[in-house]
Amino acid sequence: MNAQKLKKSILKYAFEGNLVTQIQDSESSIDLLNIINQEKNALIQQKKLKAEQLDLTVLEKEIPYDIPEKWTWVKLGAITEKIHYGYTASSNPNSGESKLLRITDIQNNTVEWEDVPYCEISENNISKFCLIEGDILIARTGGTIGKSYLISEIPLEIPAVFASYLIRVQSSSSLYKEYISYYLQSELYWEQLRNMSAGTGQPNVNAQNLKKLLLPFPPLNEQIKIVNKIKELFSKVEFYDSYFVELDTLNKHFPKKLEKSILQYAIQGKLVEQDISEKPASELLKQISEQKEQMVKEKVIKKEKPMPPITEEEIPFDIPETWQWVRLGEICVTNIGVTYKPGSITTKEDLNSIPVLRSSNIQNSLIDLKDLVYVNSKIRNNQFLHPGDILMCVRNGSPKLVGKTAIVNCSGMAFGAFMSKVSSPINDYLQIFFQSNIFKDQLVSSKTTTINQITQSVLKNILVPIPPLEEQKRIIFATNNILNKFKEKSQRVF
């Protein structure tokens, strides 16, 4: 459960009367309500307050749940002296008779008073709209409707008034104002507010509706006890939340970091032990070279120019003695996809159509056969994919997708433009290499991610550390075994 849900639960318990034990010798909340009514009547007689015209009686059918014996259900207007709209004026960032607090100035339950703009206002209106400690402001319209803020202090030498899109709630001096402030954060409050604004084009709430808000009303000493408990628990929740966020971030990023580390170790010759009795990588490279020469003789592929020798400065790190650095073009055959005529492309399969794999068909290093497209045109032999081929995205609008690969596990399919086919006897090992940062770092250094494209020249010149064939098999097994086990454990734990 995250911090927000925990706080909701705490407030729910608080306003059901289940957060703290009831004070047995406490006076009933009815007594407090009588005191508040006496204060309001005195203000009405002094003509400092208008008599309430709204019927604020709580009906039996309105009560949502049972509360402790000494509590009572009341409506907000019955325990407040005044609920009214703010002052309409243009804001001025530099000067004015008063600060003008707006909805946008209340962020994360705080106000940076020095940044609040000024406004022009008469002395009469300053006295009418001037904010004082204990005032509660509620946003009455728009996306922030219902957001509330308790004025705890105004560290200014000049008055501050509140803008017209805010409603001020001024409660009785006999009421614990922080109790009302926490109520305005509870689900009980928000549910009533949603019902009030339902069906309106522009969400809004007015002063009259706010007066009708139903709330559970405990005795004063119990209000104080509840607020203190909420503060204590909220403080612990916020402490917990910092760890929750850290853990959540770790859970999201740790698997990826671990995978990168394992791939890095694998490609550097640090994941499995070397066996000096095995044939070195040079023997394997010789066999691959002979196979390519035979393919040239048989006119399966064209003879290519020799790759440039690898210089000492190019080698990024040391590898075991039985390994060897090569350029990718020396150990594989690559082919770039072609662009098919728009009229030949369809999303429907028929007897004459050939499925074409694109960048979107590579998902999480696997071939995904969803959303295939088909072509009804003649396709050259080198444009077909075969099981064991590696399909690579070599051009994409997103730099992060350039270089993603998957081993093909099906036949009879072609590949489209912006894709490349990599064919080699050691493709299982190369697939691990293509997922490593060693490959991706070389793409960055070649500015591939700037132009979002891997050219055939760049691809063929990529440096690859090649282990002996038997060691490749151990690396492939160990890498897949570790990553699969960790993924299974992550799914169970996280």
Strand adjacency order, main sheet: 14-18-15-22-19
Which bin fits the share of residues in helices? Answer: 25-40%
What class do helices, strands and sheet pairing give? alpha+beta
How large is the share of residues in beta strands? 15-25%
- The total strand number stands at 24
Give a brief description.
It is built from 14 helices and 24 strands. With 494 residues, it is α+β, with helices and mostly antiparallel strands.
Could you characterize the architecture of this molecule?
A 5-stranded mixed beta sheet has the order 14-18-15-22-19, with no helix packed on it. A 4-stranded antiparallel beta sheet has the order 2-10-7-8. Helix 1 (3-16) runs antiparallel to helix 7 (220-267) and helix 7 runs antiparallel to helix 14 (469-493). It is 37% helix and 17% strand. A hairpin with a 2-residue loop joins strand 16 (362-363) and strand 17 (366-367). It starts with a helix and ends with a helix. It has 494 residues and is of the alpha+beta class. The chain is built from 14 helices and 24 strands.
